[in-house]
Specification:
Low-confidence stretches: 376-395
Strand order of the largest sheet: 4-3-7-6-5
Number of helices: 12
Helix content: 40-55%
Structural class: alpha+beta
Largest sheet: 5 strands, antiparallel
Mean pLDDT: 77
CATH topology of the largest domain: Heat Shock Protein 90
């Protein structure tokens, strides 16, 4: 109760009582307390939501920073609708900030007019006005470095991606020079034809590999822009998972390209040592069991627990591991068998040992199978590596790495396969190199 009372007196000055008013403020106090509690609850919800957004932003920044490409998003500054006068940097990754030798915190908010030359700014305005994506490859002024630049309009701004493609361009230039030298010669006609086929195969492989890399980077950039439109944390987590898978795929592709390049150039050398091949293969199969169990496949292996051989232990492990993991990866039902043993031959024959890996997978395409077995040198305008990468039967480059390693080990590899009925790899290796 709220009281407002005053004392009352008679004409003689005697106290007669109080006069005043009272108001019941219980309802007002209750409503005020409920309002305060409601505000506190909403404040806590906003704080938690802001914390989740901060964690998501940090995860996104980590994904962006792990990319070898330079990535940035600029918001348009419009004088009139659809007529930007400049662009302001909103977000960038670590590669972009290192290109300008400034931390991302200093670059944020900077206008494009202070970062890029006039022609570059005009191209940004053109993409924004027309919504037409832009892609170009150019040589940096004063530097032997090639950059691929992509610009895409996204709502109120421009997403920019730049990737160093110097190695790709140098490979193309080297291929062009080699073809010119070969075509200018009138001698060694058979050698000329063989070299042309080699260059075409290598060129197809490089084009396919860089096309796949560009596609993966496109998925990453597209997913980055999609995050701005995601409403729930679950949707954002799915996009982040997709971006991480593509980054892992890019890393795997780059490593395979480097391995194949080293083998082709002769950089890989043979380093024979004495080791236990039985223990090596047993350990490899045991370590691959979780992958087989995860896919509901069996992985059976059979062979002596101890098999002393002389050879390059690292390269033999690479061969076996590549074949076992590839078989598990592309087999959908059934499983994989691995067997090894020493081979007792004639007195004149060199001692050998072998291992066989067979699966119940989809099998290999006929052109790739013929190429691996050495039955053909080249087929058509498309290399078996390219075909293997596009028909869903597996990664051709991985099998060609195995083939090159076998050649280095002076090993014999024979592959048999039937469409829909699985593949069998038979590797015969010298027991020693004395």
């Amino acid at each position: 109760m709220l009281e407002n009372a005053k004392p009352m007196f008679s004409f003689e000055g005697s106290f007669t009582g109080f006069t005043g008013s009272s108001v019941d403020i219980h309802l007002q106090k209750t409503m005020a307390q409920q309002l305060i509690r409601h505000v506190d609850e909403k404040t806590l919800e906003l704080k938690l939501a802001n914390q989740e957004l901060t964690e998501t932003a940090n995860s996104l920044q980590a994904v962006l920073d792990s990319s070898p490409a330079s990535i940035a998003f600029f918001k348009a500054v419009e004088a009139q609708k659809e007529q930007p006068v400049d662009f302001t940097l909103v977000i960038c990754n670590q590669k972009f900030s290192s290109d300008f030798s400034k931390p991302a915190s200093e670059l944020a908010g900077m206008p494009a007019s202070s970062l890029f030359p006039f022609e570059y700014q005009q191209q940004m305005k053109q993409v924004y006005a027309t919504s037409m994506p832009f892609y170009a490859e150019h040589l940096l002024d004063g530097h032997p470095k090639w950059l691929a630049t992509a610009m895409t309009r996204r709502d109120h701004g421009i997403a920019i991606t730049e990737l160093d493609i110097t190695l790709h361009k140098e490979a193309g230039i080297q291929q062009q020079r080699l073809m010119q030298q070969l075509e200018s010669s009138n001698e060694m006609v058979q050698s000329l034809a063989t070299m042309k086929e080699y260059v075409q195969q290598r060129g197809a492989f490089l084009r396919t590999s860089f096309h796949d890399l560009r596609g993966s980077f496109g998925v990453i950039v597209g997913a980055t822009m999609l995050l701005n439109d995601m409403d729930t944390q679950q949707e954002k987590d799915k996009v982040l998972d997709m971006m991480q898978r593509n980054l892992i795929q890019v890393s795997h592709m780059m490593n395979q390209m480097l391995d194949y390049s080293r083998l082709e150039s002769g950089e890989e050398k043979l380093h024979p040592v004495h080791f236990d091949a039985g223990a090596l293969l047993t350990e490899l199969c045991d370590g691959s069991q979780p992958l087989a169990q995860e896919k509901g496949l069996y992985l059976h292996f059979e062979g002596p627990g101890s098999l002393d051989v002389e050879g390059d232990q690292v390269k033999i492990r690479r061969i076996a591991q590549n074949l076992v993991l590839n078989a598990l990866k592309y087999t959908l039902q059934g499983g994989v068998n691995v067997k090894w043993r020493s081979i007792e031959g004639d007195h004149d024959a060199l001692p050998q040992w072998e291992f066989v890996i067979s699966d119940t997978g989809p099998g290999l395409p006929a052109p790739l199978l013929a190429k691996i077995n050495g039955e053909i040198q080249y087929m058509g305008s498309e290399s078996p590596v390219t075909q293997a990468n596009t028909d869903g039967h597996g990664e051709g480059i991985g099998l060609f790495i195995v083939k090159k390693l076998c050649e280095l080990l002076k090993a014999q590899m024979r592959v048999s396969s039937q469409d829909g009925a699985g593949t069998r790899f038979h590797i015969v290796i010298p027991l020693s190199y004395v």
